[in-house]
Amino acid sequence: MENYFPQCGKLFVTPISAAGRFGTVEFDADGRITAFREKAERAAGFVNAGIYWLPRELIAAIPAGRAVSLETEIFPALAAQGNLWALPAPPPLLDMGTPAGRAEMERVLRSG
Predict the structure, then answer these.
(1) For the domain that residue 78 is a member of, what is the CATH number?
(2) How far apart are CA 76 and CA 4, in angstroms?
């Protein structure tokens, strides 16, 4: 893919002990994201926490006129160009994608 993205993006990641259900994000010692690993049996790793910092110029450079996936198109392209950085965030991962995750998220948010 051409270098459509003039600036770098930042992706919050959080450590999780059972990362397989989510897929993992790999990054170097400086925080530059080097790979996204699809869902597979993995004991632990960092996962996408669902919080992004993307400059306006980067968003404006996303091709118009078709559906685009940040997770499967934009982020891997940015990482391949060396323009995506990981920002580690402390656990827990608050996953509202399942009933159990929603209940856990509500519990954590209520407890402060």
Answers:
(1) 3.90.550.10
(2) 13
**How would you classify residue 65: left for phi > 0, otherwise alpha for psi between -120 and 50, otherwise beta?**
left
At residue 87, the pLDDT reads: 93
**Contact at 8 Å (CB) between 1 and 80?**
yes
18-50 pLDDT, tens digit each: 777 777 899 999 999 998 887 666 678 899 888
Q: Is residue 3 part of a domain?
A: no
Q: Mapping DSSP to helix (H, G, I), strand (E, B) and coil, where does residue 104 land?
A: helix
Per-residue three-class SS string for 7-33: CCEEEEEEEECCCCCCCEEEECCCCEE
Domain count, the chain: 1
Pull the structure tokens for residue 43. Answer: 């004991």
The residue range of the domain holding 66 is 9-111
Give a yes or no: residue 27 inside a domain.
yes
